[in-house]
Amino acid sequence: MPETALVVINMQNARIEKGSEYFLWNLDTMVEKINYLIAYAREMGYKIIFINHHEAEWAFSLDNPLSDFIPELSVGKNDTVINKFKVSSFYNTKLESELVWIRNLVVCWALTNLCVRMFVEEAYDREFRIALIDDLTVAYSDDIHDNTLQDLADTRSELSILSLENFVG
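^ that's the sequence the OP posted. Answer follows.
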């Protein structure tokens, strides 16, 4: 049983579709870097979990292609996919049961100040050891991203916030 899981949060088409109100800019190499992290996690024997955010309607509704994972994302047939309908990845999902043997979590993607932050806070309260990959998380502005990471660092002393390069080191 693996003791570590990689959790990729909300890497969906709505974030890369330029016409979408949820579009995140400057993602040119983001998918490539996340796929590198996924390949590293597979090599290390980590459990890999993809979180998919949904809402009742609009871009993140279940039947909207914008809510699908980004096609280039390396989702494998043995990976776990969790659909969520709130900011929390734990609320009314099977996530907790998927983490039974897991002690360490590696977390990335969107949005730093919402779903990623909520995941980190809830996982931290469940006493997981967490590595947040700062250059593989994004928000709608660098200020929001940086302020969220600083607040998490200031209030969660055991949280590791590090770059992809330092993580795979």
